[in-house]
Amino acid sequence: MPNRLAHETSPYLLQHADNPVDWWPWSEEAFDAARERGVPVLLSVGYSSCHWCHVMAHESFEDDATAAYLNEHFVSIKVDREERPDVDAVYMEAVQAATGQGGWPMTVFLTSDAEPFYFGTYFPPAPRQGMPSFLQVLEGVRHAWAERRDEVAGVAGKIVRDLAGRDLQYGEMRAPGEGELAQALLGLTREYDPQRGGFGGAPKFPPSMVLEFLLRHHARTGSEGALQMVQDTCERMARGGLYDQLGGGFARYSVDRDWVVPHFEKMLYDNALLCRVYAHLWRATGSELARRVALETADFMVRELRTKEGGFASALDADSEEEVPRDAAGPGGEPGEPQQGEGEGRHVEGAYYVWTPAQLTEALGPEDAEIAAQYFGVTEEGTFEHGSSVLQLPQSEGVFGAQKIESIRSKLLGRRGKRPAPGRDDKVVAAWNGLAVAALAETGAYFDRPDLVEAALGAADLLVRLHMDEHARLARTSKDGQVGANAGVLEDYADVAEGFLALASVTGEGVWLEFSGLLLGHVLAQFTDGSGSLYDTAADAEKLIRRPQDPTDNAAPSGWSAAAGALLSYAAHTGSEPHRAAAERALGVVRVLGPRVPRFIGWGLAVAEAFLDGPREVAIVGPSLDDPATRSLHHTALTGTAPGAVVAVGRPDDELPLLADRILVNGDPTAYVCRNFTCDAPTTDPRQLRRALRS
Hints:
Blueprint: H1 11-15, E1 23-25, H2 28-37, E2 41-46, H3 51-61, H4 64-73, E3 75-80, H5 85-99, E4 106-110, E5 116-120, H6 134-147, H7 149-164, H8 178-191, H9 208-221, H10 224-239, E6 253-254, E7 262-263, E8 266-267, H11 268-285, H12 288-305, E9 315-316, E10 319-322, E11 346-349, H13 357-364, H14 366-376, H15 402-416, E12 424-425, E13 428-429, H16 430-446, H17 450-467, E14 477-479, E15 482-483, H18 490-507, H19 510-526, H20 559-574, H21 577-586, H22 588-593, H23 602-613, E16 617-621, H24 628-638, E17 646-650, E18 670-675, E19 678-679, H25 686-692
Parallel strand pairs: 1-3, 2-3, 16-17
Antiparallel strand pairs: 2-4, 4-5, 6-7, 8-9, 9-12, 10-11, 13-14, 14-15, 16-18, 18-19
Helix pairs in contact: 4-6, 9-10, 9-11, 9-23, 11-12, 11-16, 12-16, 13-14, 16-17, 16-18, 17-18, 18-19, 18-20, 19-20, 20-21, 20-23, 24-25
């Protein structure tokens, strides 16, 4: 019989609706029930494309005996971290402070006042490699709760007090200067992997926001070292297994240092950010590889993540079904090792994407299979599990001919399409859709792909129609055209504003500038503390044990960094001094953290580059947006590399602020470039405009 999660809209929560565990969604009623029963709370946090979340669900939450123990001795709450990033952030901070590490599934035990007292992540069904079993953990927590309640309450109270004392203090809130950005570059150079690209060791994550900083730093200073790190990293990622060589799009991360074997889940935010990085790399260098990857990634998002309502789904799972005999070895190589599902139809990580030589022969025939194996790096030994290989591009297609390779790729993609596909989390997250809007709008404009711009407009329209209420307050998520109950957090307001500002520059439609202004008005009113610091939740949001506040960029830009960028761009578009001042104050955290931990504040550093450069304000006036000369100037402005430059295009009588008092020179379409209250002479020549945006 379904539990309470059957009434939720989150795909992750719905995956647990048929568990024998008597799950509650995050709610005051759940804590009231724990208080009335006198039992502790189990908080389990995960997300729908999380491999180990699926494993623990199968091993423990689908097990009748484990569920019976939970139901008798605990109130169990299940949270989708993508719906409630505030809840996730607060308790993940506690987990990391207590254990030195974190991850998902996150397992936290709470008092009925939501105060944490015991932490963990994945627990196996039986003791393994020094880890206790999940049932042993439950028994230990129950005994402590029953026999040492005062001690448990003391631990919980101390944890909450310690968290409250971790408020951020950054002194004078002002933007970083040349010195701090140079120190950040030096720090990145020290952590750079010159043999493989990227930063640090395994697992290796795509450093999209750091790459944006390096591209902007190169554009502003001419640093060839910064550009080289971007070029080498982008090429290694695009040629490795992290990138889907058949269908486009990037996986979450590489488990090795060489970008060979990915963790196969595909996230919307990764692909939106990387699409933009590769488009900006093409803008800086003209790289054909960058152009191809940007377009293929954009096409992947539209083809595989767009929902029927016009938004973009959150993720594709890492796992998919594979036909495997019951007595076959599991992915770890040991027969009988626990996997999600049994026998035929079990779910295996990467099953949709990997190939053996035999599978290539079956799909292509012997001759083309040999070519495909050489081109994509498929070997008898394999690069993944059970002799299968993740497709890579170890060599150029020129050896075999572009037409032959395209034919092979098309056949393999068609054959792969007949395999059971990974599950899709159809939840539309406002922030990540904002990132997708910006990426698709720019990529479509750069490469004359109006269909991509239309896809961006469709997602933006959904955000306005469904996620924004009559007061321009944002809802965090929607699914199947039904808006979720959770309020938007700072990253939602900031990333959606970023997407709308990109649309304003690409389309010349002032309504997107107006919508971004409404959202940023809420940022200033609800998310700031008056001194320059920003909070992740609004002042009137649900009160948790701590108001989350994290300025560091992780898998996506932090709300703090994203807000600084959107505020700065809006100020450049409108001349608003309050927005620019708020952006400068927000960048104070980058001045402190940039030289220390540049890998974890990449978007903040990128925004700081724009601040130092102006950013430049470009106004294009012409008789109409369809006029060829106007379009040429507009395209030149959009593909200029000046960090964070904003662009307005329209007729002289349009009501965009940057177009005010701009006239046509000799009746011809004209470009105006300004920064720091100083304007260059207007020009009608695209070549002169390009030079103005590259110096």
